UniProtKB/TrEMBL annotation:
Belongs to the sigma-70 factor family. ECF subfamily. Keywords: DNA-binding, Sigma factor, Transcription, Transcription regulation. Residues 37-93 form the RNA polymerase sigma-70 region domain. Residues 124-175 form the RNA polymerase sigma factor 70 region 4 type domain. NCBIfam families: PRK12539.1 (NF009191), sigma70-ECF (TIGR02937). This is ECF subfamily RNA polymerase sigma factor. CDD domains: Sigma70_r4. SUPFAM superfamilies: Sigma2 domain of RNA polymerase sigma factors, Sigma3 and sigma4 domains of RNA polymerase sigma factors.
Length: 187
């Protein structure tokens, strides 16, 4: 994930020039930052957090032509995220004051609530595992996340121990291929 103003602005400018890879990396980086931003405000309501993230990413896409290269990208993105949050509050008749902080709030590390960070990590993990066939995802979940042995996982899934080992191996290989050589760039 990229969270540096200079790098994000460079990606935005390259995107505006038609660089599809830069645009994809910009949106992926923004997705992670926006998840943290909205999770700090909405708590563990993952569905609403994801809805707001997607709404904001769409707004970034729709409004990208309005971005002024002379201004800070993070301030522009923060304004869009803040407006989406206020719209959410209005739709759900929530009376809450949202302070006029600067864009650094969008990129602030979430050190106050590790449960929220864990919730976001679980959502990211679920999204990654959903890319795999169900058998591979389940084998990885049981052996790598739940800590079962291959034999225990095989018993639970009604498969052979060898089939579980192969499923885990193939699933992890597929995830590594998806994440590419630098997993930090694919969050």
């Amino acid at each position: 994930m990229i969270s540096d103003e200079g790098k994000l602005k460079t990606l935005m400018l390259r995107s505006l020039d038609g660089d599809a890879a830069a645009y994809r990396l910009l949106l992926e980086s923004m997705q992670t930052l926006l998840q943290r931003f909205f999770a700090r405000r909405l708590g563990g309501d993952l569905a609403r957090v994801e809805d707001l993230v997607q709404d904001t990413l769409l707004a970034i896409h729709d409004k990208r032509a309005t971005f002024d290269p002379a201004q800070r990208f993070t301030a522009w993105a923060y304004a869009l995220a803040r407006y989406k949050l206020i719209d959410h509050y209005r739709r759900h008749r929530v009376r809450r004051h949202e302070p006029l902080d600067d864009e650094r709030d969008l990129f602030a590390a979430d050190t106050t609530d590790t449960a929220q960070a864990a919730t976001i990590a679980q959502a990211d993990l679920a999204r990654l595992l959903s890319r795999l066939p169900q058998r591979q995802a389940r084998a990885i979940a049981l052996t790598k996340l739940d800590g079962l042995t291959a034999a225990e996982a095989a018993h639970r899934l009604g498969a052979s121990e060898g089939a579980i080992k192969v499923s885990v191996h193939r699933g992890l290989k597929a995830l590594r291929a998806y994440l590419g050589p630098d997993p930090e760039l694919r969050k």
